[in-house]
Each structure stands twice: as C-alpha cells, then as structure tokens.
Amino acid sequence: METKEVSIIGAGLAGSEAAIQLAKRGIKVNLYEMRPQKTTGAHTTEKLAEFVCSNSLGSYDTTNASGLLKREMELLGGELIKIAYETRVPAGNALAIDREGFSEKVTELIESNDNINLIREEVTSIPDGNVIIASGPLTSDALAASIREFTESDYLYFFDAIAPIIEKDSINFDIAFWASRYDKGEASYINCPMNKEQYEKFYNILINAPRIELKTFEKGAKFFESCLPVEVLASRGVDTLRFGPMKPVGLIDKRTGEENYAVVQLRQDNSAKTLFNLVGFQTNLKWGSQKELVQSIPGLEHANIVRYGVMHRNTFINSPKLINCTLQARTRENLFFAGQLTGTEGYTESIASGLLAGINMANYIKGNPLLQLPKTTMLGALSRYITDEQHEKFQPINSNWGIVEPVELPKKERKNKKLKAELIAKRSLEYINDNISGKISG
C-alpha cells in the first residue's frame, strides 16, 4: 500500500502520541522538535513528552471525567497512556507518573521506530503536505506568526504556572504525616498540617510576597481557572485556600486523630520517591519569596527546593473557527491540529487529542472516513466542544461531565452524581467497544 509522509511539529504529549499512531499504521513521520536547540522557558530537558507542570494526569476512576477519558484512550489504542501506567507512582486515585521515567520511555520508543524520523530543529512556518501542528502552548514566535497568518486571526492565550518541587529528605516528619484524603487507596501523599495561627502567618507572607513582573506583552494575563497561581487564589479571600488546595477535609493525622485548620499536600514526583511537588501551589512569586513561603509551612522549615515555580504564557488557537471535530483544519484538509494549542487543557486531554489527530491523519491518507466520536463519549464531547462554532468567547477546557450528552435518570435519582457518572461511563465504553475498538486500523 502506498503511504505518504506526515510532518508533525512538536514532540510533546500530543505530537508524540500522533507520531506513534501514524507509525504503527505504516505511515512515515518526520517529527520536529526544536529543543534543545531552542528552549521554551518551561521545559528543563531535551526529552520528548516532558511534563513541565504537575506530574499527575488526574483520576483513573471512570466515574471521574478524566478517568473515563483515560479508559477511552486505552480502548482506542492509545500508546502514551500505556506508558503512563508503566511509570506510575503512588498518588491515591490519581494517575501520577515518574516524569523522567515517562519521558525516557517515550523518547526511546520514538527514536527506535523505523517509521519515525526525529528532527531536532525549529519549524518556523507551516510546511506543505500532510501536517499535524502539535507545537503546544509554548509555540515559538516564528511558527506562531505563520499560524496566525494562515488562520487570519489573533491567538487567544492564558497563563500557566508551575509548582515548586521539594526534596523528600528535607521534610520534617515529626510534623508531616502520610495520608490520602478519606483514606482512599494507600497513604501516598505527604501532608503538612496547620493550625489557625500558622495558616494566618502563611497567608500574610503569601499575599505580601513580591511577584515576578510580567513582560509588556504579558500584561492583562488571563488565568485558566483550574490552574490558578496560589497567590491569585489567595487574593480572593483569606479562606479561599482552605476550601481549595489546602482544604483539610478527609485528612486525619492518625497520631492526633484531629482534622487540622489547613493542610498542604505534597505528591510524589519521581519513582525513586526522593522528590515531591506541592499540590495546587503553582506560583509566580520571586524565588526568594517562594523559599520564605515554603519554609513557613510546618514540616517544611528546612525544605530543599529543587525546582522553583515559574509562570509562562500558554497560547491556543481559536479552534471553533479554525478546525472541526476531527481536528482537521476547515480550510486545508491535509492539516490537523492537536494538543493544548487547540484549547484542550490538561495532560490527559492533550494526549487524547494527539491520539485523535493521529488516527484521523492516517484515515485521511488512506482515504477512510475520519473518526467523529459522538458527544456520548468524553473524547467526542471534548473535541466537539472546542470546535463548536457557536462559541463567542472560547476558553480552554478540561474533560468534564458538563460537556457530555446527559443520561436520563429517574426523578428520585437525578441528584445522584455517582450513578450519573457510572451510566455515562457505561454508555461511552459500550459504544467504543461495539463500534470502534478493534475496527480502527493499527
């Protein structure tokens, strides 16, 4: 069978997944990655599919929207989700990964694949031929200008922040304790408890701490609600953090039997269990202020911060006007977009969009119908949401139950959220099993 080459721009989560999907269908891929020749300001290695913020892909439980999306990817033949499970680290009901181990496995898989030619150079304009643009939220200025020219529209953008990472051996376990919320799964989080006085001291340091000044082009920053810097959350009120990332509910220190006023959680960041990141502590504070703030947390008085938090601009296209639910450009049929550039926010969502773009580029090349998943599935609902032409003010979105076609419940069960999630998941997985799984090539 005659095959045609595909150029994929960006070897992050979406680009790597798309490349592997095409390669296993016998299609040659030129996969372009500008690192390490050109850096992004957020990435720290030259490995492919690097996790730059949290190391968690969210819940793997199918009664959670993100968990359902993961299971759908497995049924559709996703490759990076397999590697995520192979490199997972303890995180309760969440799928958290050893970020270095994950990237190493993806890099090795791609570099050893005869159908993938990894090219370490920057692409400054959209190539001719079959192309998937998965350059991510940190697309280089030159390529961004080329995309802007092609789309005849300005980019939208929001700002993303990264949380600090702490060395485990520097944590004081006379104060900190191991637990998962409500004792679900193994006790895989480190918890630093606070009483009211300690919390108020922490809060005062936080709201008065100097931040890194934004560049001129970054003024008027738009923050994504599910990844707000901790200082932005704190500015909304003194108790905002206690009902957000520092909520103490369900976290009991078995040494005291007490529920504390506030709790800071740390999640395992590598398989060696030597590094832990502060959950929900994305920040743009100056590094000296970050150190003061972190070391004001009980149990972290002598914390060794191995990576400080930073903030960067995330760019995304106006997908409702530019692409359709197959992720194919509306005005150029051999051009597809994938990843966070499309407005799918989150690691799981980024991988899923790369999976869909890879499958559909293969279908396009082979003359097969493109895969259009219905809104009864999470991936179908997500791809249709970001490409809905009725959006007036499009913003990035995670997988969530609100975008999926609802299920009918008896009146007395309409407030039963768990039952609703179970029925949506059952409907989705049955559809994929009956209509798609085993029938898509590759």
Tell me what you see in this structure.
It is a single chain. The chain has 442 residues and is α+β, with helices and mostly antiparallel strands. Helices cover 30% and strands 16% of the residues. The protein folds into two domains: 6-161 and 315-435, FAD/NAD(P)-binding domain; 165-309, Elongation Factor Tu (Ef-tu), domain 3. It contains twelve helices and 18 strands. A six-stranded antiparallel sheet has the order 10-11-14-15-9-16. The protein has a five-stranded parallel sheet with strand order 6-2-1-7-18, covered by helices on one side. A three-stranded antiparallel sheet has the order 3-5-4. The longest helix has 20 residues, at 347-366. 48% of the residues are buried. The mean pLDDT is 89.
Topology:
Elements: E1 6-9, H1 13-23, E2 29-32, E3 56-59, H2 65-75, H3 80-86, E4 88-89, E5 94-97, H4 99-111, E6 116-119, E7 130-133, H5 141-151, E8 156-161, E9 165-167, E10 177-179, E11 189-194, H6 196-208, H7 230-234, E12 252-253, E13 258-259, E14 262-268, E15 275-278, H8 287-294, E16 305-307, E17 311-316, H9 319-322, E18 335-337, H10 347-366, H11 378-386, H12 417-435
Parallel strand pairs: 1-2, 1-7, 2-6, 7-18
Antiparallel strand pairs: 3-5, 4-5, 8-17, 9-15, 9-16, 10-11, 11-14, 12-13, 14-15
Question: Which key phrases capture this entry?
Answer:
30% helix, Elongation Factor Tu (Ef-tu), domain 3, alpha+beta, single chain, 16% strand, FAD/NAD(P)-binding domain, 442 residues, 12 helices, 6-stranded antiparallel β-sheet, 18 strands, 5-stranded parallel β-sheet
